Amino acid sequence: MVSHASSTGTRTYWLQPVSRGMATVYGLMACCYLIETLWPLLTRGTFPKLSNLIFLIFYLLMLGVFTVFSLRSYVRLSNDSIAFARVRDKKVLPFNKIRGRRRYTEKADPYGPAAKHLVLEPNDNHSPKLDLKDGPWFDESFYSWFDSLPDLDAADGIEVPKSKYANFSLV
């Protein structure tokens, strides 16, 4: 399950469940490689090759970075605010500062799948705008909360194109 509800009504949605699973797999692989690299030192007293140690250190550093990125990406919906956190920043938008919601689809690559975004617009210039990438990590309670907010696209009478390649065609 990618969301977690606490007794206080706070729901946490982990944004990269696949990355979290892959970090576990890569961690197990790192343990196996660590044992294989250090086994000659433990059993025979011979020092392993320097290239193997350098690769092991590099692999463990990359595993650490990958794990930190996967564990620090979440959306937390509490009783009074919504928070969006990544490794470098955390944005918190109180419910009384939300002006409304928007949806748009971005297709950066004409051959890849489109990325759907959910946007929360603040009602002042001091609060952050939250642009959340939609995915399987959100449940029905999140979507019902999100859909209960005023739809700014409909209020502005703007029809958002589905893709920046919407008017692109081969001649």
Structural account:
The protein has 171 residues and is of the alpha+beta class. Among the domains are: 17-71; 95-156. Helices cover 36% and strands 25% of the residues. It is built from four helices and eight strands. The chain has a five-stranded antiparallel beta sheet, with no helix packed on it. A three-stranded antiparallel beta sheet has the order 6-7-8, with no helix packed on it. Helix 1 (17-43) runs antiparallel to helix 2.
What's a concise summary of this model?
The protein has 171 residues and is an alpha+beta fold. The chain is built from four helices and eight strands.
Q: If you compute it from the alpha carbons, what radius of gyration comes out, rounded to the nearest whole angstrom?
A: 22 Å
Q: β content, as a range?
A: 15-25%
Overall mean pLDDT: 81
Distance between the termini: 47 Å
Reading the helices and strands in chain order gives: EEHHEEEEEEHH
Tally the helices: 4
* Quaternary structure annotation: single chain
Please write out the topology.
Layout: E1 3-5, E2 11-14, H1 17-43, H2 50-71, E3 74-77, E4 81-85, E5 90-94, E6 98-106, E7 115-122, E8 130-133, H3 140-147, H4 152-156
Task: For this entry, give a set of tags.
171 residues, alpha+beta, five-stranded antiparallel beta sheet, three-stranded antiparallel beta sheet, 4 helices, 36% helix, 25% strand, disordered C terminus
